[in-house]
Amino acid sequence: MALIRTIQIDPATRLGVWKIGEEEGFFRERVNIDPGVHHPHKRLQHFAGRYLLVELFPDLPVHEIRVLDSRKPYIPGNPYYFSISHCGDFAAAIVSTREHVGIDIENVQPKIGRVAHKFLAEREQQFISGIRKLEHQTVCWSAKEAVYKWYGLGGLDFKANMQLQAFPLQQTGMLVCDFLKEDRMACLNMQYIIDNNLCLAWTAGENKQQNEP
Fold first, then answer.
1. What is the distance of C-alpha 101 from the center of its chain?
2. In this structure, which of 107, 127, 177, 209 has its CB flanked by the most CB atoms within 10 Å?
């Protein structure tokens, strides 16, 4: 299909969402890589995500991407920080030359509500909207997934290590996540969008002012 949304977050950071309607060959013409993925749709998602990186930053060398044991993709010795997410026929990506980033795209679906108790602490459950409960839970899940990708090293407890400050649910909004881990403490500014049963959440890095003594 096409690039359906782009957001210039700051001079060094940009994100985009792509609606996948093309065949694999379309992406291979510009992103000539061997993804090592056998499932046809997952391989198509993989190509679309890499293609989107180049749409956002044309000089980004996708052929140099490597993957950590934690499954975080990175480019050794390169000034690009990026994160990719897939959901059905959508690919989302965020790229920055400034600092680590994270993004997640999700469908608003009942299974998220069924497992909400596993990723929301009791304090977080108390601020969930009673009217739009599932959408609010999905934003929280998507935000924590984005933070998980921002951190990139795995081994996180979604309740203990990622704590969301209370926020009202809107179609487009902002929230704050306190990242609490022995090797890293941070206050992350986050944003989200809910559009046509799809939730997009991302972080472009730390709130430096709140972290200053």
1. 8
2. 177
